[in-house]
Amino acid sequence: MDTKVLVIDDEESLAALVKAVLEGEGYKVAKAADGKEGLKAFYTFRPELVVLDVLMPAMDGWQVLERIREVSETPVIMLTALGQEHQIVKGLKGGAADYMVKPFRTAELVARVEAALRKSHAAPDSNDYHDAALRVDFPRHEVYFRGERLDLSPREFRLLGVLVKNAGKVMTATNLLDQCWGEGEGGAESLRVYIGYLRKKLLDDARRPSVIETVREFGYRYCPPSG
């Protein structure tokens, strides 16, 4: 089995247990010890499912779930000590595929992982964006422009993902910064720099206009090319 699972939990013994259990079922498993490390691993490891704790340093599980949902429909199972009804509802409404409360039965976790993966694989293929020139495979974090694969950093991928999911709409700088940098992070100059990086990678012919348009005093817009 080549299915990859990412476990994000700052409790080392529990993360190791989940890793051992899932590897015993044939999954390929990576683990991360906090939210920021987990988000980085999400982009590099490219899992097909994430097992995610909530109470973690650096970045909590709610924030990690929100960031994942901005760019991917990869199923996320919340595995946490937070078991009150409003917390479970928050997780499910936030886009989690399932929610389990610690302590848990390992056999039940395996069954829920299998169920979440079956549902994900059976869903219509809505995890790609494509137009005449660009294809973005969100679960695999792969981008192809005019048939050639692009090498994007995690932030470039996240920024492009937000733009193409809102193709034709003007996205304000504030909105892009909140979604791609996080509240209180980055600034207008940093955004301009990353927009510039993307434009260089998405401009294969100097005679063609950039697919990322600057709308003066408003923000940026992804304009799908006609050919």
Provide an overview of this structure.
With 227 residues, this protein is an alpha/beta fold. It folds into 2 domains: 4-122, Rossmann fold (3-Layer(aba) Sandwich), CATH 3.40.50; 128-222, Winged helix-like DNA-binding domain superfamily/Winged helix DNA-binding domain (Arc Repressor Mutant, subunit A). Helix content is 42%, strand content 21%. The chain is built from 8 helices and 12 strands. The strands form 3 sheets. A 5-stranded parallel sheet has the order 2-1-3-4-5, with helices on both faces. Helix 2 packs parallel to helix 3 (61-71). The mean pLDDT is 88.
Write the topology of this structure.
Elements: E1 4-8, H1 12-24, E2 28-32, H2 35-45, E3 49-52, H3 61-71, E4 76-80, H4 85-93, E5 98-101, H5 106-122, E6 128-130, E7 134-137, E8 142-145, E9 148-150, H6 154-165, E10 171-172, H7 173-180, H8 188-202, E11 212-215, E12 219-222
Parallel strand pairs: 1-2, 1-3, 3-4, 4-5
Antiparallel strand pairs: 6-7, 7-8, 8-9, 10-12, 11-12
Intertermini distance:
39 Å
Note the beta-strand portion: 15-25%
Radius of gyration: 19 Å
Task: Kindly state the number of beta strands.
Answer: 12
Shape: elongated
Low-confidence parts = none
Oligomeric composition of the shown chains: single chain
CATH 2nd-level architecture of the largest domain: 3-Layer(aba) Sandwich
Name of the level-1 CATH class of the largest domain: Alpha Beta
The tally of domains stands at 2
Helix content: 40-55%
Return the CATH topology of the largest domain. Rossmann fold
CATH superfamily of the largest domain: Response regulator
Q: What is the topology, as strand order, of the major beta sheet?
A: 2-1-3-4-5
The main β sheet shows up as:
5 strands, parallel
- H/E element sequence: EHEHEHEHEHEEEEHEHHEE
Structural class: alpha/beta
Arithmetic mean pLDDT: 88
So how many helices?
8
